[in-house]
Design brief:
- 42% of the residues lie in helices and 19% in strands.
- By secondary structure, it is of the alpha/beta class.
- It has two domains: 236 residues, Carbamate kinase, CATH 3.40.1160.10; 145 residues, VC0802-like.
- Strand 12 and strand 13 form a beta hairpin.
- The longest helix has 28 residues.
- The relative contact order is 0.10.
Length: 472
């Protein structure tokens, strides 16, 4: 176990030229014994699929909806231009730029021909487009990572690094390999001690990464690669440190770098949208005994935060964070003593791919706190009304604020949080604390979210010591 496996996100990749001399190299020399897994350049996957936050349609969404037979062609041309602009912004040598541009044009043209042929085929009644949508999504996803990986290799080779492209995207491949076999095939003959593999975050495999993990696929590839190769450590390079709260809300000098936490806390963070790593990827690392380190890639000398299975030395709050949610309330007087209501709600939420953040129930009411779009919620409410025509169904935009730590026992988080809110005139709509003492949740109006995070951070962290302050 002499090597590390390291992942670079899309926003960082867009500043690849700044990382060449600091992250990949030190004092002008390559640091081998490191395998890098890269995401697509920032914004490219949004253009290829759909915008992750706003839902604005990309190539895939336009093709799948088929409202405009040729609207996706314009989106594909827009994506091609954005990919070329991305590598022109970080590459200096014209030969490298030309090679990267030719690569984009070849891959985009291949994807265009594939989609045109599929669209033509599905114009016949014997073939249905919806049976091929997952494969289309996989095909498009791989374009962004293959491009960014090639650009990184070109840049590093120009700087004298023995870098090698490991393209796991399965482009024009005919082998239907498992993820494990795909990685094994891609890494065959590579010695990280003497060369630097640059691996695509997307891997084409029989399991279909998009089917189960969707946009979390790059972290799944990363974790599987680390586990499979017996990495000494898995490292995720972000544009910021994992900290006790968003510095924009609590002040740059008040937010504290975590430094050390465990996978239990990482799971709670993922549930609240503050994702250090995809839960499935964390599970792979956890089971294989590979510790995870999360660093700020623009502060290469800072060790960042280590995530492992170690318990806390003493009870302490570690993070205060929040998430906008929608509260879905089902009230039915006949629910008392009758089984099945909760299962029916869960079935409908699952069918509409709505994520449950938390829930509470009593004798005649089931309330789910959901991370969902309004469009999805309208469909959910319609199905619930059809299933329970006598029920009262209400939804409301709220926020969920959580205090998270490896061990919160004895800290009286619930009482102290309610007291802090009362002193500032904030009236929570609900609060809950589980028996495992790893998180305490407060339900509030959305307009109170930012203020509530700052209040809770002050309550549990106070004025930071100089040595624990976040780097400016």
């Amino acid at each position: 176990m002499t090597h590390t496996v390291e992942k670079i996100g899309g926003t960082s990749m867009s500043r690849l030229n700044e990382l060449c001399e600091t992250l990949f190299m030190k004092q002008g020399k390559a640091e081998y014994g490191r395998i890098f897994v890269v995401s697509a350049f920032g914004g490219i996957t949004n253009l290829l699929l759909e915008h992750k936050k706003t839902g604005a349609p990309g190539v895939y969404a336009r093709f799948a909806n088929a409202e405009d037979d040729h609207g996706w062609l314009g989106a594909l041309n827009e994506t091609s231009a954005a990919m070329i602009a991305a590598h022109e912004a970080v590459l200096d040598h014209q030969g490298d730029i030309d090679q990267a541009t030719a690569f984009v044009q070849e891959r985009i043209e291949g994807a265009r021909n594939c989609l045109i042929d599929l669209q033509r085929l599905c114009s016949y009644g014997h073939f249905r487009l919806d049976t091929h949508l997952l494969q289309i999504r996989e095909l498009l996803s791989g374009l962004g990572e293959a491009h960014s990986a090639l650009v990184a290799v070109l840049m590093l080779q120009r700087a004298g690094v023995n870098a090698r492209l490991v393209d796991l995207s399965g482009w024009r491949g005919d082998a239907d390999l498992s993820l494990e076999a795909r990685i094994e095939s891609g890494m065959e003959g590579i010695d990280p001690a003497t060369e630097m593999p640059i691996v695509t975050g997307y891997a084409q495999c029989a399991e279909g990464l998009m089917r189960e993990f969707d946009r979390g696929y790059s972290e799944v590839t990363f974790s599987q690669l680390a586990a499979q190769t017996g990495a000494r450590e898995a490292i995720i390079h972000k544009e910021f440190h994992l900290s006790s709260a968003d510095p924009k809300l609590v002040g740059e000098g008040n937010a504290r770098k975590l430094g050390h936490t465990n996978y239990d806390v990482a799971d709670q963070m993922a549930n609240l949208g503050m994702e250090a790593i995809h839960p499935s990827a964390a599970k792979t690392l956890r089971q294989s005994g590979v510790p995870l380190r999360v660093t700020n890639c623009f502060e290469p000398e800072d060790p960042g935060t280590i995530i492992d299975d170690q318990p806390a030395d003493k009870p302490a709050a570690e993070i205060v964070t929040g998430l906008d949610i929608i509260a879905l309330e089902l009230f039915e007087q006949d629910m008392v003593g009758v089984k099945g209501y909760d299962a029916a709600v869960l079935e409908i939420l699952t069918r509409h791919n709505v994520r449950i953040v938390s829930k509470v129930t009593n004798a005649n009411t089931v309330t789910h706190y959901l991370d969902a779009s309004l469009k999805s919620m309208r469909r959910v409410e319609a199905d619930l009304s059809a299933r329970y025509p006598q029920a009262e169904i209400n939804s409301e935009k709220l926020s969920l604020i959580s205090v998270v730590g490896r061990d919160l026992s004895g800290l009286h988080v619930l009482a102290r949080g309610m007291s802090a809110f009362a002193q500032d005139g904030i009236l929570p709509r609900g609060a809950t604390q589980g028996p495992r003492n790893v998180d305490t949740q407060f339900i509030l109006r959305r307009e109170d979210k930012d203020k509530a995070i700052a209040l809770l951070h002050d309550e549990f962290f106070g004025a930071p010591q100089a040595e624990t302050r976040m780097a400016a």
